[in-house]
Write a structure and sequence with these properties.
Structural class: alpha/beta
Radius of gyration: 19 Å
Strand content: 15-25%
Strand order of the largest sheet: 3-2-1-4-5-6-11
CATH class of the largest domain: Alpha Beta
Number of strands: 13
CATH topology of the largest domain: Rossmann fold
Largest sheet: 7 strands, parallel
Shape: globular
Order of helices and strands: EHEEHEHHEHHEEHEEEHEEHEHH
Oligomer: single chain
CATH architecture of the largest domain: 3-Layer(aba) Sandwich
Number of domains: 2
Amino acid sequence: MKILITGAAGFIASHVADACIDAGHELVIVDNLRTGYKRNLNPRAKFIEMDICDPAIDDVIAVEKPDIIDHHAAQISVPLSIEDPLTDAEINVKGVINLLQAAVKHSVKKIVYISSGGAMYGEATEYPTTETYNPRPLSVYAINKMVGEDYLFFYNQQYGLDYTVLRYANVYGPRQVSHGEAGVVSIFVEKLLKGETPTLNAYPGEPEGMIRDYVFVADVVKANLIAFEKGSGDAFNIGTCIPTSTRRLYDEISRQLNVNIEPHKADARKGDLHRSMLDISKAKRVLNWQPDYNLSRGITQVIDYYKNLSGVKL
C-alpha cells in the first residue's frame, strides 16, 4: 500500500514510518519541521515539507494518491492549548478538515487518526476508562482532539470515508525530546544522565504525583499497522491498563541508572489530570492487539537511546 504519514519527523510517527518501510509499504511523509527533526526522517520515504493547514495539501494528495493517511501531526502541548486556544484549533481542527477534504476529493481509502485517550476523557469516573465513556475534556487540546473524531464520523457518514481512531495513553520511547512540552520519561532520563535534579509535579496531598498509563512506542507502532486493515469506523484505546505514579516512574529510572537524586517538587501544570488509565480490552478483542513492553523494558530502551545520543557512559 501507499501510506502518507503526517508529522513523521516527530517522535511517534517517525517510528511508524520506519515500520511502514520495513513492512514494504510505499511511504510519503508530510511535516512542517516546526517541532520535528530531519534526523528522524526515514531516507527511504519521500519527504514533503508542508504544514497540514496549507491548502496545497490538496495538491500533494492529488499527486501522491495514497491509499491511507496516518495523521499524527498536531499541536501536542496541553498547557499551550490552554494559553493559546486559537493556535491549537488552527492546527488540530482546521488541519484535520484540510486533510479530510483532500482525502474525499482524491479517493483516499482510509484515515488513521491519532487521538488522546490520555487527555480527552478528563477526570474520568470510570477507571480504567473505556471508549464508551462520555468524554469530559479539561484542556483545549483534548477538546479539539475530540472534535477531530466528530469530523471523521461526519465524513464517514456523508462521503463514505473509512477511518480508525487510536486513542493513545502516555507514549514514551526513543526520539522523544526532553525539552519544551515533552514526555516525563525523556525529561527524567536526560536530566539524570547529566547529573541534574529533575522536577516532580504533583497536586497538593498527592506527593507521589499523577497516575498515568505509560505505553511504549513500539506497541503504539504495532497498533498503527494493524489499523491500516482493521477497526473500520471505530475508536480504540491504546495503552497498558497499568497505573503508574510519577514517583514510581522516577524511581524505576533512577534504579536503572543507579543514581540517588531526590527530585524537586512543584505544583501540577495547567490541564494536568490527577489520574488516567485506559481499558484496552476492546483493542485486544477487535484488533487482536496488546502491548508487549512492560515499563522496565521500555525504560531500558530509552536509557540506551540517550546514552548513545550523548555519549554518556555510566
